[in-house]
Specification:
The complex is a heterodimer of chains A (about 850) and B (about 300).
Chain A (H helix, E strand, L loop, with lengths): L12 H29 L2 E3 L8 E3 L2 E9 H25 L4 H4 L5 H5 L21 E8 L5 E7 L6 H14 L1 H6 L6 H12 L10 E4 L8 H11 L2 E3 L4 E4 L2 E6 L2 E4 L2 E4 L22 H6 L4 E3 L16 H9 L10 E3 L3 H9 L4 E5 L9 E2 L5 H13 L4 E5 L5 E6 L2 E16 L2 E4 L4 E4 L15 E8 L28 H26 L10 H16 L13 H6 L2 H17 L7 H14 L6 H13 L9 H27 L4 H26 L7 H10 L3 H8 L5 H10 L7 H14 L11 H14 L3 H4 L9 H25 L6 E5 L2
Parallel strand pairs in A: 3-21, 6-7, 6-11, 11-12
Antiparallel strand pairs in A: 1-2, 4-5, 4-18, 8-9, 9-10, 13-16, 14-15, 14-16, 17-18, 18-19, 18-20, 20-21
Helix pairs in contact in A: 1-5, 2-10, 13-17, 13-19, 13-20, 13-21, 14-16, 14-20, 14-21, 16-19, 18-19, 20-21, 20-23, 20-24, 20-27, 24-25, 25-27
Chain B lengths: L1 E23 L9 E11 L4 E6 L5 E7 L3 E14 L13 H9 L4 H7 L16 H8 L8 H15 L1 E2 L10 H7 L1 E2 L1 H14 L4 E8 L12 E8 L3 E5 L11 E7 L2 H4 L2 E7 L3 E10 L10
Parallel strand pairs in B: 6-7
Antiparallel strand pairs in B: 1-4, 1-5, 1-12, 1-13, 2-5, 3-4, 8-9, 8-11, 9-10
Helix pairs in contact in B: 3-6, 4-6, 5-6
The chains are: A alpha+beta (about 850), B alpha+beta (about 300).
Chain lengths: ~850, ~300
């Protein structure tokens, strides 16, 4: 923020004045708001090697980093120049290899690089562009000069986080943003979209997909965020397949051609046939499809070869040779240890240098020569000597500082700015802004999100206000109305189906756990005892009550428990269902499963639904109180959980387009609800001697049908009526019959359900299920045989459960078989 | 001399394979002393897509995919060749190995540049910490100061033949070459990789050659696909050595393809979806040309 002479750079005045006006407390308040936005939007960054959890909220600082327009113009020109240069180098390395022949770059640096893919040499790339998306990490020294620290040519990350940071700073400092003429980011993303579309010139409305390695990647959030923002389908390698040398997306509606792949997966892993054979993430045949010109990939496969700081040693000369220009922004002085003369120099000057890996093939943290003892230096030099090509030495540069908010006051931090460029019209468009990253403390020199650093929005201050511009109104030719929802990857349908099932399962756990405690401490009259026994049956039947070894508690064991101790036992068990971290079939396990699936589905779940889920998560963070308050605390938690859960499922099912995605979610829910309700009826109503008013009331409550029952029969509790309402009444949205009717409708709409003759298996199954409840009669079902058992109810419920299981398996086989693993064929 | 070669690879699966993508390096390339007269590739079931290209190293490669479910895949290659027995250079006339090393390092000519491709680590050779001292130590016993490169390389070849046991059960396709060096056992691919590692560890360009061997008494590796290696010598070109048979390939060896190591020129490799358990069988026959061409079988 300070100029070399110690005075404040003038373009900071507006922001500093505003911050003074807002004051530390005001800023803190606004920051809370910003952090809430981040939490609600689920902005995360996965940290490798963190055992507690792989996800961490995105650390952002409320105070933006400011750059004045003139200075920015220089950065922009320098980044464009560098991108053009790097692209020419790629063209040469994957073409005539002249710069290697002429030793302008040492052959070893290229030929030994694990990302120099020989299968990609002379690959025809659209418009001769290998490098579509480029990012550079740049930093300023205290004298005000900018330096390039590193190049990102493989699959640069951060543009989406930059956009997210912008949303946060707009929330925190809206008035300053307006008055300071901050340049907007939308124009960059517009250029990005145009550029990606232009990669498939032969196709009028190309299908562009964003290829991600999956949810365990450190920047998966960004992949999902960008895919949604740019309107691309987010795919994993397993969602794509190559047929007849064309790439297709596997969807419920069949195979859809893919024209452009925006690649966020390292090239090595993209094709197990032509590239790394051990890749489980790739698409076999992709390289061949690229050779045929049937698919464009951005960045081109092989572009990762430039991700080595060693190139910095040769770029100044290459700029002169290739472009006839000097580098507009110098890179940090760099020595590649593979060169004997450079190695000697490095050995003599180690105390002023930082040693880094030459490529991502070798992984170690940067080593600062200054901080090593004489012995450690000697050891390091020996390591370098043994494998010199793997090491690079760079001059240690002092980084300039920027203010960052820290515990209510402003603190100074070192910063590195990541700048983004996208190839467009024969040159590059640079994002007017970028991702500013700061060190975790004033002393730290390593800027890394993996090491707990933070990030900031970057404001480029224009002289005049920019015309408002939005990505939503850019299309020059209007799009046709489209109602198609067929490009849903089968993997997503699979996850939606199970999300539906787990949402219902969770709800059932909550309702059951909630219904039991109020019935435990009635007067010890026979009626109360009956209710307790029914609760027990429902709980064991649902699999909730078990011994430690997973075996169900038997009837005989239960009967040995003294009646006076039964209530206590059940209370303990229910509390364990609610509080136990890893109780099988417990609340937290079911919730974790819902969260996991929702996380996998982040790109298809709305931001609102995501927020509700985050709230639900927060409710479970509090520690349960000790002693007598525990039961009421648990009841309260269950009530709140039920409300959040209803909001979540309501948002999801109400706001989702009525396409196949929604259909699978709904089928999952119906199937699970039918299953749970059949279980409930079977265990709660199936035993003659125990059923009394209290028991019937408990069962009605678990099935959420108390109101419907009362509206029909007032207060008279009768088993056949309850059974009819829960099992057979198609007018009750909680009944089994209702779920089955819905399932039948949904299944009939599925893309594979219309064979030329007869019905598909899943259709026949739903028809049979529905018919068996339609033909049943409540009075018949409640007739007991000589030994007091309800035989026909038992037969019906057993058949329903078996057929529901069969239906689930059939749907999985027909629609989700994409999960079959591929394997290598090789022999020697 | 005319030779014909038949190479059949069969995959049997316990469950149907839904789709497979396969890449083969089965067409013999023209090299000094070897001319390809005819080549046929038979694939069953019939591929839905097939395409042949020349790869980075100039080998002919064919890519194909089958989209119909199948439980057997057969790839059969039939080649007819004209092979001449070429005399290897007189060892004493070849330059010292240090001179070869320095010329390639300095990229003294276009040939040296092309050879430098075979100087570095590659997917199956030199991985991990690079070519460790164990390889250069083993090599330097043969590569005495100022020794002509041909003489030293042949000595290395003989030592590998003597020191290593031919044992198909000792290693498998994923045994690292450093492990082979410790085991002192393996098959032709392993011995070729060991010799390549030794040569590269002292700065000499070495490439992997995939091919066939005409069966005869006391030859090893004739019943399946064979492999050996060659070392570059400026002015003389690439000199072949077969450490599995302690020979300099001449007349009995058919060159299919060459690359940095096995991974560049795997005869048949692919990715299949499904399939369950698989059984692979490979048969190779090299001999005098067949009188009648294969019938309808």
């Amino acid at each position: 923020m300070l100029a070399p002479d110690g005075t404040r750079r003038p373009h900071w005045t507006g922001l500093v004045d505003a911050l003074n006006r807002i004051g530390p407390e005001g800023l803190d308040e606004r920051w809370q708001e910003g952090r809430r936005l981040i939490r609600d939007n689920g902005v995360t960054y996965n940290v490798y090697g963190d055992p507690r959890s792989t996800e961490r909220p995105w650390p952002v600082d409320p105070v933006p980093f400011l750059i004045e327009n003139g200075e920015w113009a220089e950065i922009e020109a320098a980044i464009t120049q560098r991108a053009v240069l790097l692209n020419s180098i790629l063209c040469d390395l994957y073409g005539p290899q002249r710069i290697v022949r002429d030793k302008r770059v040492p052959p070893a640096l290229v030929l030994e690089h694990p990302n120099y893919f020989r299968a990609c040499r002379n690959l025809p790339v659209p418009n001769g562009v290998w490098l579509h998306n480029y990012a550079a990490d740049i930093a300023r020294s205290p004298d005000g000069r900018w330096w390039v620290l590193a190049d990102r040519t493989q699959a640069p990350s951060g543009a989406g986080y930059a956009l997210e940071n912008r949303l946060v700073s707009l929330r925190v400092l809206p008035e300053v943003f307006g008055s300071e003429n901050v340049r907007r980011l939308a124009s960059f993303f517009q250029a990005y979209r145009t550029s990606m579309r232009a990669l498939a010139p032969r196709v009028e409305n190309p299908r562009v997909v964003l290829l991600t390695p999956g949810p365990y990647n450190e920047t998966y959030f960004e992949h999902a965020f960008l895919a949604r923002y740019l309107g691309y389908t987010l795919v994993e390698g397993g969602d794509l397949t190559v047929r007849h040398n064309r790439v297709f997306l596997k969807t419920l509606g069949g195979l859809l051609p893919v024209d452009v792949i925006v690649r966020r997966q390292d090239d090595a892993w993209c094709d197990p046939l032509a590239l790394r054979p051990d890749s489980m993430l790739g698409v076999a045949g992709l390289v061949e499809a690229a050779w045929a010109g049937n698919v464009a990939i951005a960045n081109s496969l092989g572009s990762g070869v430039l991700e080595s700081s060693a190139y910095s040693a040769f770029l100044p000369a290459l700029a002169k040779h290739v472009l006839g220009e000097d580098l507009k922004m110098p890179n940090i002085a760099t020595w590649w240890c593979g060169d004997a003369a450079a190695r000697k120099w490095v050995a003599e000057h180690l105390s002023t240098l930082v040693i880094k890996p030459a490529s991502r093939a070798v992984q170690f943290e940067p080593v600062f020569g200054a901080s090593l003892s004489a012995g450690e230096r000697k050891k390091l030099l020996e390591k370098i000597e043994a494998n010199p090509n793997a090491y690079v030495a760079q001059e240690q540069v002092a980084l300039s500082m920027t203010p960052a908010a820290s515990e209510g006051h402003l603190d100074a931090r070192h910063l590195v700015l990541r700048v983004f460029a996208v190839a467009s019209n024969g040159s590059y468009t640079v994002m007017p802004g970028g991702l500013t990253r700061i060190t975790s403390s004033i002393d730290s020199l390593v800027v890394s999100m993996q090491h707990g650093g933070g990030s900031k929005d970057t404001w480029v201050l224009a002289d005049n206000p920019e015309p408002a511009f939005s990505l939503l109104r850019t299309s020059s030719t209007p799009l046709q109305v489209s109602r198609a929802t067929f490009d849903l990857p089968s993997r997503v349908a699979d996850n939606l189906f199970w999300l539906g099932r787990y949402m219902e399962r969770l709800e059932m756990v909550v309702r059951t756990a909630r219904a039991v405690p109020p019935r435990l401490y009635h007067d010890p009259d026979p009626a109360g005892v009956g209710a307790i026994s029914v609760c027990w049956r429902v709980l064991t039947g649902g699999g909730w009550l078990q011994h430690e070894d997973g075996k169900a508690i038997t009837e005989a064991e239960w009967s040995r428990v003294k009646p006076a101790e039964r209530a206590e036992l059940l209370e303990r068990e229910v509390l364990d269902m609610v509080c136990g971290e890893d109780t099988r079939y417990g609340l937290r396990i079911a919730l974790k499963e819902v969260q996991r699936l929702a996380w996998l589905l982040r790109d298809v779940i709305s931001a609102d639904s995501w927020r509700v889920l985050k709230q639900l998560e927060m409710q479970f963070l509090a520690d349960p109180p000790d002693g007598p308050l525990l039961v009421s605390w648990a009841q309260n938690l269950l009530n709140h959980t039920l409300i959040s859960l209803s909001a979540f499922s309501g948002l999801i099912s109400e706001n989702m387009t009525r396409g196949n995605g929604w259909r699978f979610l709904d089928m999952g829910r119906r199937l699970e609800r039918a299953h749970q309700t059949v279980q409930l009826v079977r265990n709660g109503l199936g035993f003659e001697e125990l059923v009394n008013e209290h028991a019937l009331a408990a069962v009605l409550e678990v099935a959420d049908s108390t109101l419907t029952y009362r509206s029909r029969y007032l207060n008279s509790m009768q088993r056949d009526l309850v059974l009819d309402l829960l099992l057979l009444d198609e007018g009750n949205p909680r009944s089994v019959a209702f779920q089955l009717a819905r399932l039948r409708e949904q299944v009939a709409e599925l893309p594979e359900s219309r064979p030329t003759t007869g019905h598909a298996r899943e259709v026949r199954l739903t028809l049979g299920l529905l018919a068996s409840v339609q033909m049943a009669e409540a009075h018949e079902l409640t007739k007991a045989n000589g030994s007091g058992q309800l035989e026909s109810l038992e037969t019906l419920t057993a058949k329903l459960l078996a057929d529901l299981l069969l239906l689930s398996e059939t749907l999985t086989r027909v629609y989700f078989t994409h999960a079959v693993a591929s394997r290598q064929l090789a022999s020697r | 001399m005319k030779l014909s070669a038949q190479h059949t690879t069969t995959y049997l699966y316990s469950e149907p394979v839904a789709i497979c993508h396969t890449e083969v390096h089965l067409s013999p390339r023209n090299v000094p002393g070897q001319k390809l007269l005819s080549f046929e590739l038979e694939i069953r079931p019939e591929p839905d897509f097939l395409l042949s290209r020349t790869d980075y190293f100039g080998n002919s490669t064919t890519y194909f995919s089958i989209h119909e479910p199948h439980q057997t895949l057969t790839v059969e290659a039939l080649s007819e060749l004209e092979i001449e027995s070429e005399e290897p250079p007189c060892p004493e006339l070849t330059p010292s190995w240090e001179r070869v090393r320095d010329q390639v390092r300095e990229v003294a000519s276009e040939d040296c540049f092309l050879a430098s491709e075979f100087l570095y680590r590659s997917p199956l050779v030199g991985q991990g910490t690079g070519f460790g001292a164990e390889f250069s130590n083993y090599a330097l016993t043969s590569f005495l100061p100022d020794r002509p490169v041909q003489e030293a390389a042949f000595d290395l070849c003989r030592r590998i033949f003597k020191d290593f046991r031919y044992d198909p059960r000792a290693t498998n396709i994923s045994t690292p070459v450093s492990e082979v060096l410790k085991l002192r056992a393996g098959v032709c691919q392993d011995f070729a990789h060991v010799m390549i590692s030794c040569l590269r560890s002292i700065g000499l360009p070495a490439r992997y050659v995939s091919g066939y061997l005409k069966s005869g008494e006391n030859t090893r590796g004739a019943e399946a696909s064979h492999a050996w290696c060659s070392v570059f010598c400026p002015g003389f070109g690439w000199l072949d050595f077969d450490p599995t048979n302690d020979t300099i390939p001449r007349g009995d060896h058919v060159t299919l393809a060459f690359g940095r190591d096995y991974s560049d020129v795997t005869p048949v490799k692919g990715v299949a979806l499904g399939g369950g358990e698989q059984i692979i069988s490979v048969s190779v026959g090299v001999g005098a040309p067949m009188k009648t061409r294969r019938g309808t079988a």
